[in-house]
Amino acid sequence: MPVPESVRVWEIVGDQGIDALHSNRRTGYQPQAGQVLVKVQATSLNFRDLSTILDPAARALTYPRVPNSDCAGEIVAAGPRVSHVAPGDRVAGCFFQSWKDGGISAAAMASALGGPLDGVLGEYALLAESGVVHVPEHLTFAQAACLPCAGVTAWNCLMRVGDVQAGDTVLLLGTGGVSITALQFAVAQGARVIITSAHDAKLKRAAALGAWQTVNYRSTPQWDAAVLKMTGGKGVDFVLEVGGAGTLPRSLNAVRVGGRIALIGVLTRGEIDPTVIMRKSIRVQGVYVGSRSMFEDMNRFITAHELRPVIDRHFAFDDAREAYHCMRSAEHFGKLVIDV
Q: Which residues contact 281 (CB under 8 A, 6 or more apart)?
């Protein structure tokens, strides 16, 4: 397939928010050494993508910048010295283009799509050969597009930081993309899951996916006490803390002595008393997505258990702004996907 002369993309062109996203055409999509050109079939939204559009100054973005970190599609062209993938391969892009394995680094963080680097909200994307992975054969492109950020984040939290084993009790907060993906992973791993939401209908859906217990945090504001009661006063083994306003102190209360908390969100504010962390010997670890190696491990697990990401809604490429408004409303369950 010939390389297109120009490609349609959506761009952040200032700090005026969602409705200021600009549709444009770009040139220069000939893959260079070590690069592949991917025909994007689907891209999914994350809270991080929304926050980047709403406050690009916080990330010191230069304009214009293509948003979005997650995509799946087909390789249509490859540059010189590409040997591990080829045109025709079905792939997803890695959130960090240069984090292959090992621990995170400043260099890896500088290779994030939709932030330091242009993202994938376009018809095509130029990606590093080392920055793509083959997607499980049983997944559609839309399902595969849900994995690079939310999927890998959930995997890193549960399997690396949390070391969640069969029989462990896991607490998940909310029903967004990361939490619902983590629910699927934890259930497949044989863990017992407690999940929270402000909506009983969402809790019912979570129970259908295998959640052991549910808590409506609107009708039960002291949900940490409810979690302790569910666990016989012991507390949970692991919490995936999404960083909602005021949630971390309750998560610290809900986790057991010697338990683990993976913190991924940025909304928690205010003072945290470190005494409880020390007294209960809690391990609190910040998590920023994960490496290509984690992505590949996760895909093997997804294939073995035939898991499919939960997609709440699909949007047309022309309706990208509407998709972000939907994300901002926080009414979704699972993932939001833009079909390209």
A: 257, 258
Q: Given a cut of 70, is residue 214 above it in pLDDT? A: yes
- Residue 142 near residue 296 (C-beta atoms within 8 A): no
- DSSP strand pairing (90-93 vs 70-78): antiparallel
The alpha carbon of 171 is separated from its chain's Cα centroid by a whole number of angstroms, namely: 17
Domain annotation for the chain: domains and CATH numbers? 7-146+309-339 (3.90.180.10), 152-286 (3.40.50.720)
Q: Which two tokens stand for residue 162?
A: 């949390």
Distance of CA 275 to the CA centre of its chain: 31
- What pTM, to 2 d.p., does this model score? 0.96
Of 56, 121, 70, 119, the residue nearest 319 (C-alpha): 121
**What's the whole-number mean pLDDT along residues 179-197?**
98
User: Where in the chain does DSSP place strands (E)?
Assistant: 7-11, 22-26, 35-44, 70-78, 90-93, 124-128, 132-134, 169-173, 192-197, 213-216, 236-241, 255-263, 283-286, 311-316, 335-339
Dump pLDDT digits (tens) for 85-112: 999 999 999 999 999 999 999 999 999 9
3-state helix, strand, coil in the chain (%, to 5): 35, 25, 40
Chain segment 35-86, per-residue pLDDT in tens: 999 999 999 999 999 999 999 998 889 999 999 999 999 999 999 999 999 9
